[in-house]
Amino acid sequence: MATLYPPYCEKFGWMMDEKAAEDMRARNEARVAELDAKIKDAEDNLGDSEVRDAMLAKAEFFAEVGDRESALAAFDACEKKTVAIGQKMEMVFSVMRLCIFHDDWVALEKQIAKLKDLLEQPGGADWERKNRLKVYEGVYKMARRDFAGATSLFLESLSTFTTYELMTYDEFVFYAVACAVVSLKRTELKAKVIDSPEVLAVIDNIAGGSVRDMVNSLHACKYREFMLAFPNAADAVNKSTWLHAHHRYFLREARVAAYAQYLASYKSVTVASMASSFCVSEEFIDAELSNFIVEGRLNVRIDKVNGVLVTNRPDAKNALYQSYIKEGDHLLNRIQKLSRVIDL
């Protein structure tokens, strides 16, 4: 990966080995010359299919060594020689992996749209590729913090997963469960994740079982166990390739889900009781809830004098009534303004 070596040295403060860099470039140039010779031989002595295969090998080599610009140009040239829809789709998958490696999510979105268009063309309907696309699109949504969309796509792919070029099945289940914890309701979490045979088959192997303990204890309302398992599960999220950037968001959303679930069971509860349930100090709970209340994430009021938390459940019907009144007044005001214009 001679193309990536210099910028990585600059990024991480490494001392670049000029001799090693020159050696890598020389080896790459030799390999490219060899591939160009195969392309020339195919053009002179073989057919279009062999030419296309030789061009694809060159494009895949550029992708393998991290030379993104050369790889994209080579894939584009190869696509012009490709007739079969299936082969075109495989090249799009290769370009998508290149986009994911370089964290280019804007380009990945365009490639997803391109692949969906190919799937709609005559001869493009392929269930295996459609299922693989769901995983790629799920990774895109997860990286863009659309956890609800990613969860839906990942859960649909649990029983049809074949995208081993991106991740192992254990890693895939981890991503599905992590996204589900912060996006699904408690009943859906039970039906779609906790009781899923595909999840049950591997969840014990993920992060030393901490992810299993976290999701099961959250559903079972065992908040002490949840808080004990949560740090290890959060560490796994922090070490994840695509969830690392959303580590703080995951920490916040998972805690909000647990706090809201606990408070939904009470009209009022003491701070000491909640702190004991979550195996933390009263000061910690007070600070946590204060932040979430200010952000409008929890419907609860803290009675600091009596050390009590008073839940304030929103009245959906009353809120809808108030909304209708407000919108009705706005409409009447606009009608009155319009009538004055018409009278003039």
TrEMBL record:
Keywords tagged on the record: Coiled coil, Proteasome
Ranges of residues in domain PCI: 146-316
GO cellular component assignments: proteasome complex
Listed GO biological process terms: proteasome-mediated ubiquitin-dependent protein catabolic process
Coiled coil among keywords: yes
Residues annotated as signal peptide: none
Coiled-coil residue windows: 25-52
InterPro entries on file: PCI_dom, Rpn7/CSN1, Rpn7_N, RPN7_PSMD6_C, WH_DNA-bd_sf
Family designation: Belongs to the proteasome subunit S10 family.
Function, in words: Acts as a regulatory subunit of the 26S proteasome which is involved in the ATP-dependent degradation of ubiquitinated proteins.
Protein name: 26S proteasome regulatory subunit RPN7
